[in-house]
UniProtKB/TrEMBL annotation:
Keywords annotated in UniProt: Cell outer membrane, Membrane, Signal
Record-linked InterPro entries: Bact_OuterMem_StrucFunc, DUF5723, OMP_bac, OmpA-like, OmpA-like_sf, Thrombospondin_3-like_rpt, TSP_type-3_rpt
Family annotation (Gene3D superfamilies): OmpA-like domain, TSP type-3 repeat
Name recorded for this polypeptide: DUF5723 family protein
Every OmpA-like domain range: 600-715
Cellular compartment(s): Cell outer membrane
Amino acid sequence: MYSRIILMGLLLILSTGISHAQSYVGFLEDNYSGVHKVISNPAEIADSRLKLDVNLFGVSSFVGNDYIAFNLDDVFSNFSDAFDNAATFPTENNFIAWNIDVLGPSVMLSIDEKQSLAIFTRARAFFNVSDVNGELLDKEGGFDETEDFSLNEGDVFGAFNLWGEIGATYARVLLNKEQHFLKGGLSLKYIQGMGNVYIRGSAVSVNYNSGTDQVSTTGEFTYGNTDTFDDAGNGGDFFDFSGGSGFGADLGLVYEWRPNHAQYTKLDAEGNQIVDRGANKYKLKWSASLTDIGEISDVNGVQRVYDLNKTQDKDNFDGDVLEDGLDENFDLLSESKSASVTLPTAFHTNVDWNLNSKFYLNFNADLPLTPKQRTNTNRILGQFRFTPRFESTWLGVFSPVSILEGAGFQWGAGLRLGPVYLGSGSIISAIAGKNTKAVDLFAGLKIPVYQNKLKDRDNDGIINQEDQCPDTPGPIENKGCPWKDSDGDEILDKDDNCPAEVGPAENNGCPWKDTDGDGVLDKDDACPTEAGLAEHNGCPDTDGDGIIDSEDRCPKNPGSIENKGCPDTDGDTLVDIDDECPEMAGPVENKGCPVLTVEVQKQLNDYAKTILFDTGKATIKPESVSTMVDIIQILNEYPNAKFTVEGHTDSVGSSESNQKLSEARANSVRDFLINEGIVGTRLTAIGYGEEKPIASNTTKIGRQQNRRVEINLIK
C-alpha cells in the first residue's frame, strides 16, 4: 500500500546515512583534546596545553529521534524484539537524525605562546528527516484494508549528505593584558561531496476507500539524488566525486579571565619572564563560534518534482523503492539539476569554570542556524549541556548532562587516557533509563606531545631547572638561593658591610669603632676623632672647666659657663679673650680697658710740659727722665688708649726751623716711650712748630710756655 512505499523509502534513506553535529560530546571541552578543538571552536588551539597533537583516527556517531524509544536491555538481549517492545510517540512532526563524524589524520602545532596551526582531515555523514507524521509510521502494517482510513502528512523534509573535508586552522592571541586574555581563530576547509539524497513533500495526504479499494493522494513531492546513488537509492561508487565541492569556514573567539595571572609567570636564571604554557591560567573562560559556514555546489545529480494529486487502485502501489513508486504511479512535473548542499551551520557557546587546578564545570549550548525546511539541508539538533570534569596532563574524566532537542535528557561519560579517548554523551541515561531516544559513542587514538609545566618547588618564582637552590626560596639576584648571614648577626651578607664581623643593623652590619680610643664608641662619641671623657660624650675638656673644647672659647683657660669657658681676670664682665685690658677693669665699650679721665689727661700733659731738651736740639735732658717714667706709668694704666705726641716751639727763629725742631722733639719723646715698652702703634708724633702758642711770644715767660710737648688722647 501507499504508506508502505513511503515508509520503506524513508527506511531506505535511513539505511544509507547517519546524522547530527554533537560530535565527541564532552571531549571537546577538555583543554587537552588538542586538534579536536578545531571542530567546535578554532580559537581554542591558541595557547594550547599541547606542543604537538597528532590524531591518528577518531570516530563519533549519533542517532536520535522523537518518535521511537528503545529499552537498551532489549537491544542487547534480543535485537529482533527491540522494535516490538519499543515505545512510540507519534506526532504530526516527528523527526529522526543520525550522523558519523570521522576525524582522520590531523595535526596541531603550537608555534609559540601566541599562535598555533592545525591541518585536519574529516569525513562526515548527515541524515535528517523532519516533520514526519508519526501516525503514518505508527500504523505501518496495522491498517485494516476493509476499513477506510485517512492520513494527512502535510509537509515533510529529509536529506542525507556524505562529504569529506580537508582544512587548515590558524589561531592566535589577540589580547593578553594582565587578567584579560582574548584569542581568535579561523578554519578554512575544502569540501568534497560524495553523494546525497533528499526529499521534500508539500501538503501530502493519503485517503483510502475500502469500498472501492481506491487510494487518493494529494500534494507535491520532490526527490533528488546524486549519481553516486543508483536509481534504486543504493550506494554506488562513493569516490567518483560527483557530489560537488565547495568551501567552508569556522570562526571562533575565546575570552579568559585570569585573576591569578601573575602566579603563572616564572623567571629563568637571567631574570627573564617565562609563561607556564603547561597550565590552565583562567578562572573563567567564555567561548563562542560559528561552524560549517558554506555549501557544496555543482552537485552532479537530478532533482525530480512529482504531482501526487491522483486517485488509483491500491494494487498499483506494489514495490518497496520510493523512486520507483514515484515514477510508476505519479506524474513528473519537472526535472532539474540537484540542489546545492547547505552545510549544517551552527552557533556554539560555552562557559568553563575552573574550580581548582584539576576540576572544572562547563556549560555549553549548541544552536542550529539552518532551517529544517530548506531543500537539501542538514542541521544539528539544539542541545544545552552541563559537564563536570577532571583533567590533568595524561588523564581526563568527564560526565556530560544535557537536554537534547526532541530526545530530552541525556547523561554520559568519557575518558581520555594519554593517546586514547572514548566516551558517550548518553551512555549512562541509556543504560539506567527507559525509552531511550538517542545514543552516541566516540573513540579514537592520537599522539599528544604536552607543553612542559614550569615547576617551582620552593615557590620563589624561579623554575626548578634554573634554580640553584630549587628546594629553598631565594631571590633571582642570588640565582634562587637564600642570602647567607656569615657572621650570624641576622643581617644578610648582601646588606652587611662587614659580613665576617658581627655588627648591628644601624651600622650596616659592622661593629661600632672607637676611633680615638677613649672608650666611647663612635656611635655615642660626639668627638669620634678626639679622645675625651664619657661624661662629655667622648669630647675633651682640656682646661677642666666642665665645658668641652668644641664649645669652650678658651679651651686652655678655665672659665665659667656664662663666659663660655673663658676667664674674666679683671671682673669687668668682659672675658679676657675679648678684653684688651684683661688685668684692668674697664667698660665694654672701651674693650675692657679703663677710660682716660680729664684729670688724668691734664696730669699727663702737666708731666709732658716739663720735659726739658737741650737748647735748639731734640735731646731730652737727663733731669727729665723721672718725668718720662711718670708718663710711662700713666700710659701703661690705659693700654688700649692711643695718643698724639705733639711738639711746639716759640716764634724765635724761622718758622721752618721751628717746624723741624717741633717734629724732632715729638719723635724724640715718642722714641723714648717706645724704647721703654709702650706699643708704637699707640703713639703718633706731630710737630706744630710755632702754630699753636698758649702764651704770648713777646715775653720771656710766654715764649718759655710755648716751648713745650703735649701728650693728648686720640678719641
